[in-house]
């Protein structure tokens, strides 16, 4: 009786995969938690959120398959607010502009967002949508190349 009680007590303290007899999720000795800090910028394979009302962006977000960054138009392969990137969205390659980053930025007076926001654009920085649904930072106004984005934006931060 005591042996059964101790056995059930020990098995309740063990993780589920040891009680059932399965292999651990990572048998290569990796940690089960993240030891590194989260990235403060956008790099390759980062999931993004389309904030304009383009058909391609709406379909991808509704299907639950957000676009991923596959390239950044900078020598250093790190993107921040205002940078141009290439994204893979619904099996296509499109260009986009980052209008909001999750991480803390080094530049002063640039707001921090809850999600990594992008706006899909053409070759000549013309947006594919007709309206931007999320607030965009005032720092984009200083850059003259994004005047078309500023024109269709509804809110600024």
Write up what this structure looks like:
By secondary structure, the protein is α+β, with helices and mostly antiparallel strands. It has one domain: Ribosomal Protein L14 (Beta Barrel). The chain has a five-stranded mixed β-sheet with strand order 1-5-4-3-2. The longest helix has 12 residues.
CATH class: Mainly Beta
* Main beta-sheet strand count, sense and barrel state: 5 strands, mixed
Instruction: Say what the CATH topology is.
Output: Ribosomal Protein L14
Shape: globular
Structural class comes to: alpha+beta
Q: With helices defined by DSSP (H or I, 4 residues minimum), what is the helix count?
A: 5
Taking pLDDT < 50 over at least 5 consecutive residues as the criterion, the unreliable ranges are 17-23
How is the largest sheet built, in terms of strand order?
A: 1-5-4-3-2
Order of helices and strands: HHEHEEEEHH
What percent of the residues sit in helical stretches (DSSP H or I)? 10-25%
The separation of the N and C termini measures: 67 Å
Give the radius of gyration: 22 Å
Mean pLDDT: 80
- Total domains: 1
Count all strands and give the number. Answer: 5
Which band does the percent of strand residues land in? Answer: 15-25%
Determine the CATH superfamily.
Ribosomal protein L14/L23
Secondary-structure arrangement, i.e. CATH architecture:
Beta Barrel
């Amino acid at each position: 009786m005591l042996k059964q009680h101790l056995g059930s007590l020990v098995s309740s303290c063990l993780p589920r995969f040891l009680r059932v007899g399965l292999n651990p999720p990572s048998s290569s000795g990796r940690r089960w938690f993240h030891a590194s800090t989260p990235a403060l910028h956008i790099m390759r394979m980062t999931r993004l959120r389309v904030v304009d009302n383009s058909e391609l962006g709406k379909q991808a977000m509704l299907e639950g398959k957000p676009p991923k960054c596959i390239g950044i138009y900078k020598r250093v392969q790190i993107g921040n607010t205002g940078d141009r990137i290439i994204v893979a969205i619904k099996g296509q390659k499109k260009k986009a502009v980052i209008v909001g980053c999750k991480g803390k930025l080094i530049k002063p007076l640039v707001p921090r967002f809850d999600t990594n926001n992008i706006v899909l654009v053409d070759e000549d920085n013309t947006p594919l949508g007709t309206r931007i649904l999320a607030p965009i930072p005032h720092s984009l106004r200083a850059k003259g190349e994004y005047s078309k984005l500023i024109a269709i934006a509804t809110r600024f931060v």
